[in-house]
């Protein structure tokens, strides 16, 4: 299981998250990047989650935000959303910078 952190999001013209800046972290040192954050389509995040990888928000302060999960909207489109907070300071995806 890989661990990825999302640091920023991009929205499309329907206000859906279309792309993320994310990187893979070293599981033995979660503060260190194994792969630096890079641009990826949201479909890559969905594939990682479906494959059993862990994806979480990384707050701008460097602390961990909420866990990310897949969702299906009323039109049947798959996307991503934040799970419930595990601690008060955890930001959702919507709290990340836009790019």
How does the SSE layout of this entry go?
Elements: E1 3-11, E2 17-26, E3 29-41, H1 42-50, E4 54-58, E5 64-72, E6 78-82
Parallel strand pairs: 1-4
Antiparallel strand pairs: 1-2, 2-3, 4-5, 5-6
**What is the count of β-strands?**
6
Strand order of the largest sheet: 3-2-1-4-5-6
User: Please, how many helices?
Assistant: 1
Radius of gyration: 13 Å
pLDDT average, as an integer?
93
Strand content: over 45%
Shape, per Cα inertia axes: globular
User: Helix content range of the residues, please?
Assistant: under 10%
Largest sheet: 6 strands, mixed
Task: Report on the architecture of this protein.
By secondary structure, the protein is mostly beta strands. Helix content is 9%, strand content 52%. It contains one helix and six strands, in the order E-E-E-H-E-E-E. The chain has a six-stranded mixed β-sheet, with helices on one face.
Quick description:
With 99 residues, the chain is mainly beta. The chain is built from 1 helix and 6 strands, in the order E-E-E-H-E-E-E. The chain is 9% helix and 52% strand.
What structural keywords apply?
1 helix; mainly beta; single chain; 99 residues
């Amino acid at each position: 299981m890989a661990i990825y952190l999302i640091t920023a999001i991009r929205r499309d013209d329907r206000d859906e998250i279309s792309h993320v800046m994310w990187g893979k972290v070293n599981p033995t040192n979660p503060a260190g990047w194994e792969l630096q954050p890079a641009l990826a389509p949201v479909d890559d995040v969905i594939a990682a989650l479906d494959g059993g990888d862990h994806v979480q928000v990384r707050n701008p302060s460097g602390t961990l935000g909420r866990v990310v999960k897949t969702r299906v909207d009323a039109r049947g489109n798959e996307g991503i959303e934040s799970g419930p907070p595990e601690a008060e300071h955890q930001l959702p995806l919507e709290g990340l910078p836009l790019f």
